[in-house]
Amino acid sequence: MSNASDTEEAAAPSTGSVFRDAFRLLCILLEGSSLATEGEGAEGFDRVFHGEKRAQAIVFYVCYPDYLANRLLDLHDAGQPGLLSTVEKIFAEDEPSVRLAKMIRWHRGAYFDLDNSLGVLSFYELIRPVQRTLPNLGSQHDYLLGPKAAAFVQDAVKLQPALAWYLERARLAMKVSGLKSGHALKAEQYKFVEYEGTKHSGVIPSIADQVKKRFDKAKVGDRDERQ
Asked: What residues make up the domain containing 39?
């Protein structure tokens, strides 16, 4: 059961983590973006990531490697090859523990305060947040990106190779998320009992132990099929 200090830690990252969080978000926005259609882009920004709710849902899979591993196992069970080795690496490097970035459960599911990250990325003109009116007269927060953002990530990884982890995990998160909307991704995440059962403002718990057992079973099954 989560306590108040857990909630504070998840909701209020330390100053030292602001740039890490911003880089993680930038990788996610880049990997989840698409070429801007006519009327969507702006000078210097030729790509767009659609939806803050979608961003939050994908951030969750990067912040919680155990939930990401579980979704990768779903894809493995559906017949996609080569994913068991990826899941094995997640557990071999103890990512569900050392890479965990706690998120709280709020009214619309897992929540991470993106304001600081968006502020940093906007200040350096790596993204441009925009608000669009939807056909149903609602609104949506989208994020424009361009060559400057892509070059920044490439240069950062070249200078600090350890940062490649965030780019790789953003790509894996997109593999399990695909083109699904934020609403669809949130609904998918609510299928986890631990996630759905977390009280509002409580920290979403790890499911590492049960995912590890599922992986071990899948690995044995895969080995038996190859023999």
From this structure: 4-218
